[in-house]
Design brief:
The protein has about 230 residues and is α+β, with helices and mostly antiparallel strands. The protein has seven helices and nine strands, in the order H-H-H-H-H-H-E-H-E-E-E-E-E-E-E-E. The chain folds into two domains: about 80 residues, lambda repressor-like DNA-binding domains (434 Repressor (Amino-terminal Domain), Orthogonal Bundle), CATH 1.10.260.40; about 120 residues, Umud Fragment, subunit A, CATH 2.10.109. The strands form two sheets. A seven-stranded antiparallel β-sheet has the order 3-4-9-5-6-7-8, with helices on one face. Strand 7 and strand 8 form a beta hairpin. It is elongated and about 60 Å long.
Length: about 230
């Protein structure tokens, strides 16, 4: 199975037309058609196409590794995938091989429409999958020192917007009437809620019911300069 055939198989498994896939990825239907005809050996949109279709980006790009289609099993051959796509019904279970790290501005846009489809318009880089996350999970770089010593500026936090924020959870939240987001620890004391910075130089914030939780921190990564 070549690159174009894998694109076609992934699209058919997701039950998208070429136009539907093009709209979700942000390219033209003609571009999808050319990819499926294998006129290009790769695409800068490969990862986005894979995540939209629910397959492993590495498999889609190279043909190596697991397909990670719902209903597929480890080591599934190209022939078996072709048979399933052409004649069998596959149950789709999203499984990300990589996780998008996005900007805080992009996170605010997604937070404004939590029930909408999760298609980041701009991805800064990709991270290995974090365990126990939904298919809407994303990552952010810690913006300042307000959460030190646990979270240093520049470290990467992984957030799941489908998890509910509870007492002591680390969350990214939007304050009522504000467009920007903040990263703090949620404290629930009786009927009151507070956002607590771990760095004592920053003030404790009491919040009202208008606060919305945009994501609960489920993991963090620390990246080191390689140059």
């Amino acid at each position: 199975m070549n690159f174009g055939e894998r694109i076609s198989a992934a699209r058919k498994n997701a039950k998208f037309t070429q136009k539907e896939l093009a709209d979700r990825v942000g390219i033209s239907q003609t571009a999808v058609h050319k990819l499926e005809k294998n006129r290009s050996k790769s695409s800068r949109r490969t990862v986005t196409i894979a995540l939209v279709c629910g397959v492993d980006p590495i498999w889609l790009e190279t043909g190596r590794g697991e397909v990670t289609l719902g209903g597929a099993r480890p080591g599934m051959s190209a022939e078996e995938l072709n048979h399933a796509v052409e004649g069998g019904e596959l149950r789709r279970t999203p499984l990300f091989a990589r996780l998008p790290r996005i900007s805080w501005e992009e996170a605010a846009r997604l937070c404004a429409d939590p029930a909408g489809s999760f298609y980041p318009a701009s991805v800064e880089t990709w991270l290995p999958i974090a365990p126990k996350t939904s298919d809407k999970a994303f990552a952010l770089a810690v913006p300042d020192d307000s959460m030190e010593p646990e979270f240093s500026e520049g470290e990467v936090i992984v957030l799941d917007p489908l998890q509910k924020g509870k007492h002591n959870h680390f969350i990214v939240a939007r304050m009522a009437g504000e467009g920007s987001l903040t990263f703090k620890q949620l404290m629930v004391v009786g009927n009151k809620k507070f956002l607590k910075p771990l760095n004592q130089r920053y003030p404790l914030l009491e919040v009202d019911e208008g606060m919305s939780v945009c994501g609960v921190v489920v993991a963090k990564f620390k990246e080191y300069p390689s140059k």
